[in-house]
Every structure is written in structure tokens, then in C-alpha cells.
From TrEMBL:
GO molecular function, one term: protein kinase binding
GO biological process assignments: cell division
Record family assignment: Belongs to the cyclin family. Cyclin U/P subfamily.
Keywords: Cell cycle, Cell division, Cyclin
InterPro entries: Cyclin-like_sf, Cyclin_P/U, Cyclin_PHO80-like
Top-level taxon in the UniProt lineage: Eukaryota
Phylogenetic placement of the source organism: Eukaryota, Viridiplantae, Streptophyta, Embryophyta, Tracheophyta
Native source organism of the sequence: Arachis hypogaea
The protein, known as: Cyclin
Length: 249
């Protein structure tokens, strides 16, 4: 499984009480953010070391190139995950399953690395697919695109890209799900943050529905932009968040 290693993000230590109480966010967001930040930092260091080799070659696969941006987005991984959860109301379990998908990618394509140029696109795409698999009610691609800061057309392409890279292996058994929850919890203990239990249950349909206040909040929230990987300035119009955009599976 993907591990973050021993890296600490500029000495910033995430405290258990912060993970559990800040903004009433699911604990899994804090746990996953910490693990992914360390993973990305470790891989960035590896990329730098490879680039310093005498022949100047970087032996990194191109499987994840579709998820690469021109530059790393300014929004941090914790804030990005928080934004996805806040405005899509997907179950906390979707973030664990999204992590499973990313881990499967690294095993199926071991020469590819999860780095700052691709982590945001990987996250929004994997969580969106996980929501379609887990949640009875979920928002469509247009909403996830707006929340994730990419165009609808690009997210549609990324969804297909991820599915093909996974060979459409998107089913996650309860045993595998539990093993990943335990792995994430162990990561926090190993890195000195303490035991933080990851949520296992799915959200209730009522809890998942975005209320009018949330609709208005997102409509007035500053837009984010995850730099388009083809460096195009064209993007599809951003949709309003409406009840009619809920997808029922």
C-alpha cells in the first residue's frame, strides 16, 4: 500500500484533536491528507534525484500523464479534500476507496509516481468514481468538475482514463476496505500523530443532500482552477449547483 514515509510537511504536525474537531470534518480527510502530503513530498524528492543523474534522464512512466498539470495547483491537498467533501457531500468512505484506486494505479503502473502535478486530478477523479460506486445519491461530473477546478470535458476524459488504467477494477470488498482503513490509521500512529479512527459507515441519503445554504455558498465561493494540462485557456461554463443535478444510481 502507499505510505507517506517519514517526511513531515515543513515540520507541521497534525494533531488528533484538530483532525477530529476542526470544521466538523471527517477524520479520514486529515488522515488521508497527511499520508498523501508525505507521499507526494517523497516522490518529488525522487524525481529531483533522478533529474540530477549524469545522463539527465528521468525513468518515470507516462501512464499518469493525462493527470499532469503544467504546474502544481496553489491549493493544498488538505484544502482540496475539504472542498470536495464540503460541496459534493459524498460519504467519508469515498475518500478511502479513492485512495484504494490511487494505490491500485501505482501497483498496476509502478514506473509512474504520484506527485504535485497530478495528485489533485487523481483525487477529484478517484473520489468521484468512488461516490458513483458507493453512494445512492451523488452529483454528476459537471458538479465535481466545478468543485475540483477543472473543465467538465477534461474531467470526463480523466474519468475514462482512470477506469482504463485500473482495467475497470473499481470494486472494493469490505475486507479490502477495512485493510485500507487500518493502514491509514497505522500511518498516523507511525508518524507520531496518534491513533485516529477512520470513518467506516456510509453517509445517510438525507445527510448527503446539499441544502440551500450550501448551494448559495458554493455559488459565491471563489472559483479555483487546477491548471489545464494542455495549457488551454478555454474551459466549459461552470454549472450552478441545483437539486436537478443530483444523480440517482
Amino acid at each position: 500500500m502507499l505510505t507517506g514515509g517519514e517526511y513531515t510537511n515543513h515540520g507541521r504536525q497534525l494533531q488528533p484533536e484538530t483532525c477530529q474537531t476542526e470544521l466538523n470534518l471527517p477524520r479520514v480527510l486529515c488522515v488521508l491528507s497527511s499520508t498523501l502530503e508525505k507521499l507526494v513530498a517523497r516522490n518529488e524528492k525522487l524525481v529531483h534525484e533522478l533529474s540530477q543523474e549524469v545522463d539527465g534522464s528521468i525513468r518515470i512512466g507516462k501512464s499518469l500523464n493525462a493527470f499532469h498539470g503544467v504546474r502544481a495547483p496553489s491549493i493544498s491537498i488538505p484544502k482540496y479534500l475539504e472542498r470536495i467533501y464540503k460541496y459534493t457531500n459524498c460519504s467519508p468512505s469515498c475518500f478511502v476507496v479513492g485512495y484504494v484506486y490511487i494505490d491500485r494505479l501505482t501497483h498496476l503502473h509502478p514506473d509512474s509516481l504520484v506527485i504535485s502535478l497530478n495528485i489533485h486530478r487523481l483525487l477529484v477523479t478517484s473520489v468521484m468514481i468512488a461516490s458513483k460506486m458507493l453512494d445512492d445519491e451523488h452529483y454528476n461530473n459537471a458538479v465535481y468538475a466545478r468543485v475540483g477546478g477543472v473543465s467538465n470535458a477534461e474531467l470526463n476524459k480523466l474519468e475514462l482514463e482512470l477506469l482504463f488504467l485500473l482495467d475497470f477494477g473499481v470494486m472494493v470488498s469490505s475486507r479490502v476496505f477495512e485493510s485500507y482503513c487500518l493502514h491509514l490509521e497505522k500511518e498516523m500512529v507511525v508518524n507520531g500523530t496518534g491513533l485516529i479512527k477512520v470513518e467506516r459507515a456510509l453517509a445517510s441519503p438525507k445527510a448527503m443532500l446539499m441544502d440551500e445554504h450550501d448551494h448559495n455558498h458554493l455559488n459565491h465561493e471563489p472559483e479555483i482552477l487546477v491548471e489545464d494540462n494542455n495549457n488551454s485557456n478555454q474551459s466549459s461554463p461552470l454549472p450552478q449547483i441545483l437539486d436537478s443535478e443530483l444523480t440517482f444510481s
